[in-house]
Every structure is written in C-alpha cells, then in structure tokens.
Amino acid sequence: MKTVTTLIFLLFVSTSASAAEPEGVPPPPEAYCKWEMTNYSIPSPLCGLKGEVPRGEKLVSDAAKGNCLACHELPIKGVEAYGTVAPPLSGIANRLSEAQLRLRVVDSRHLNPNSIMPGFYRDPSLINRPGKGYEGRTFLAAQDVEDVIAYLGTLK
Ligand code: HEC
Question: Domain range holding 65?
Fold first, then answer.
C-alpha cells in the first residue's frame, strides 16, 4: 500500500511539474533592451553586453537557436549541408561592420520589409501573433545575439 501511495505521489509531482513547464517552451522572457538604429545599423551592443566568439559559433549551427545554416553557408568544420536561399556568410566581416551586422541579425526587415530572415531580437510588442510560448519574447536572448555578432566579426 505504501508503494502505491508513493507511486501516486510521484505521478502527481511529475505531472504538475510538467504542467508548469511544458516541453519545448523557452525559458521565461528576460527584460527586453530597446535598441536604436542609425544609418541602417545598430552601433551599441544590446543591453551593453559583450559577445563571446565560441558561443556564437555554436549558436549559428544550433537548429533550435540561430539555425543560420538552414539558409546561409558558414565556414564551420564538419558541416557540409547548408541552405542556399540566403547569401553565404563567409567573409561577411569584410563587407559589413559590427553595427551593420547587428541590425541584420536583430531585425532585417528594416532593410528589406519582405525579408524571410527571422528577426532574432525584434521588439516583442511589434510581433503579430507570436507563436505559442513566444509572447513577449525575442527569438534569441540579447547575449546570444551579441555572441553571434562577435562570431560573424571573425569571418574575414
Ligand atoms: C529563413 C532563412 C534565414 C535564416 C534562418 C537566417 N537568415 Fe540571414 N538572411 C536571409 C536572407 C534571405 C538574407 C538576404 C537579405 C534579406 O532578404 O533580408 C539574409 C541576410 C543576412 C545577412 C546580410 C548578408 C549580406 O550579404 O548582406 C546576415 C549578416 C545574416 N543574414 C545573418 C544571419 C544569421 C547570423 C542568422 C542566424 C542567427 C541568419 N542570418 C538566419 C535568410 C535567413
């Protein structure tokens, strides 16, 4: 009898835990940092954060995060398949400054209103019908965006 009670208790605990945190839902939103655009670029790092190159390199090929490889070629070892719907990003730092890169990653619709590229740090209040669990959130955290920018800056 004791085992049954324990089992029921465990069942209850596990279901209520999963109800509070359903699978696939991103962590709670962090405070959104407003950014400013000048000359089709965003000169200041989001929330004043500093990006880390190795983290950025992981994020660009992480299908659940940046997933940049779905559309762009990137010089990442061991990756042979990538999307070709977007310009290759090898050597991108020779053409775009860090500030210009930031606007592309944050919200490329400011350059091309029909862009199919996701806005990774678009103002959540401007997003129409956000996906379930994405209300009030950006696709990537500010730190993630800065890490991606830092990595792109090395592609010379
Ligand atoms: C769904 C496809 C898609 C995904 C995913 C995507 N992009 Fe893009 N990206 C594009 C397209 C298409 C363009 C070309 C400009 C436009 O149409 O907005 C572009 C343009 C760019 C540019 C400017 C390139 C140039 O030559 O001027 C940069 C930089 C960039 N993307 C970075 C990224 C990064 C970093 C990621 C991942 C965090 C990413 N993109 C994810 C489709 C995508």
Answer: 28-152
